[in-house]
Amino acid sequence: MSSADEETPFDAYRERVDRPLARLFRTYGRERLGWFSIGMVANFFARAASLLPPLLLGIAIDSLFLGEQSFSIPLVPDAWLPATTTAQFWFVILVIAGSFLATALFTWIYGVTANLFAHGVMHTVRVDCFEKMQALDMAFFDDKQTGEVMAVLNNDTQNLERFLDDALMNSMRLLVMTGGIAAVLFHLNRQLAVVTLLAVPAMGLFTWWFMRAVEPRYVSQRSAVGNLNTRLENSIAGIDLTKATASERFEIGRVRDASKRLFDDTMAVLKLSYLYRPGMELLAGLAFVSTFLVGGLWLTTGTAPGPLTGDLSVGDFVVFLFMTQRIVDPLAEVSNIVDQYENAKASSERVFGLMDISTGIEDPDDPTDIEPIEGHVTFEDVSFAYDSELIDGDDERVLHDISFEASPGEMVALVGPTGAGKSTALKLAMRLYDVESGSVCVDGTDVRDVRVPDLRSAIGYVGQETFLFDGTIADNIRYGSFEASDEAVREAAKAAQAHEFITELPDGYETRVGERGVKLSGGQRQRIAIARVVLADPPILILDEATSAVDTETELAIQESIERLAADRTTLAIAHRLSTIKSADEILVLEDGDIVERGDHDELLDLDGRYAALWSVQAGAVDFERRAEALAED
Questions:
Q1: Residues 480-504 pLDDT 10s
Q2: How confident is the model over 92-127, as pLDDT tens digits?
Q3: Alpha helices in 461-593 (DSSP H)
Q4: pTM of the full predicted structure?
Q5: Which CATH homologous superfamily contains domain 460-537?
Q6: Does residue 54 have a cis bond before it (omega within 30 degrees)?
Q7: Phi-psi domain of 599 (left: phi exceeds 0; alpha: psi -120 through 50; beta: other)
Q8: For the chain, what is the mean pLDDT?
Q9: Residues 64, 71: contact at Cβ < 8 Å?
Q10: Which of 21, 153, 202, 571 could link 541 by a cystine bridge, Cβ 3.0 to 4.6 Å?
Q11: Superfamily for the 11-355 domain
């Protein structure tokens, strides 16, 4: 299957969205209905005022310049009009000038109110989408592309803003201009009006065909945008690996393929647009030519051509030409309106597709209050599979009926090969996922019965991959404890053995770490992450290979800090280096999701099983390193 045919992560959700643009107005337009209404009314008056000059010009030609008719204006009583020719002339001048002024004024009012409406909706949609993204389960991010989410937050919200602003303005302009011009033309000469407006039904049929043909192409184009965003983000985030493996040409090829897909999908849309827009302009032009031809023959021959009857004045003919020219632009603008409509429809489907994604990790309707949390953690017959539909198949389970407990002041360590289920077990404790069977309890209460923020605020987590936000070192230590004082930040850094290297930096705690903390080493980032947990002072610690990115000397210093920190709280730890969990109260050896050995360090060595074998390998490696260092010193 080609990349162009692959279903994007949001397609399944998008397809279930019903009448997305109507839902957009229903959800986000109601609270801004005042601005929207003012804008539409102002737009109506602006367009209506723009029709007065050609109408008054035609009246002036017939009544004032040629003297063929009496001075009369439709819908205006004759008693309100001046009686003399001079007064009538100045009256026409003032009304025409006033119509231009009114057009400018009401256009300005519309511009302000329409933008307040459109940008307000865009702002709220973007924030709501981000809020929804924050509420989604970790399972969503396991297989969804970040670029797709970025496309919704940026490109799709901007498409909606353009539709709510430009497309609605042009739609109102089209309705008022077409309706108003048709009314004026039928009032002046119904027969010639039919000739002029004959192209309108053809334009409607042409537009209906275009909308049906272009909609699936817009959907494919929006998918290609998300695919390219994902590819670019992944390539930039992995630039270290790319350069280290000399894979620049490979990444360029992948971005080229994603960009080519977007190019092809965009050209598929533009090919139809390039057919539609000239076609609309041609039909509008034919309306003008037909009007000029029939009206011109009518005046030059003095008789109505063909089946037409009656008379046509010079002034009415001038009005027809002006009005026909005025109708060309809004009719030709239908192409842009349809473009923006289809684009906004595809984007709103993606927006509400994201909004409609169900979340499994939610607060219970009647949460149990367990504060203050002491930190007693219990796993009881816990089984888990990342795909819940496969839980009946044992081969798909990540964890199999595991049970253990950890009390305040105790450390329980999980060791085992990669893929054994160690990190998954700790994520279940934080309720990043929910167990399939069994239970995870804190202080005797199932974590599913507790408010998620209450649970997670009681847990301090340090993972093997440390993430830092672009900001200062102090900001990153303070993250999650935003009101902490500068002194508290420094004390936490000292406890994590980070204070010394921080003070040696040019700006100390105000040093900016760069995106993802790229300006710091792996060990420095990890110590900042530990300092963050120290500052939060949670009753439960989860350490997922928390010293994996530091050297042996730093590891010993951090280990001392962790032991002091863990002295009076519950600690669940995963360690690659067994020396860091040697003093744990209980060590669980996991293999393929099962606990195959348990006990403290000495007990496991006495078993002479998997743990003892792993310890023997690592102890031998450490001894070799020490002898090598001693020889180097000699």
A1: 888 889 999 999 888 888 888 889 8
A2: 999 999 999 999 999 999 989 988 998 898 899 889
A3: 473-478, 486-495, 499-504, 522-536, 552-565
A4: 0.72
A5: P-loop containing nucleotide triphosphate hydrolases (3.40.50.300)
A6: no
A7: left
A8: 83
A9: yes
A10: 571
A11: ABC transporter type 1, transmembrane domain (1.20.1560.10)
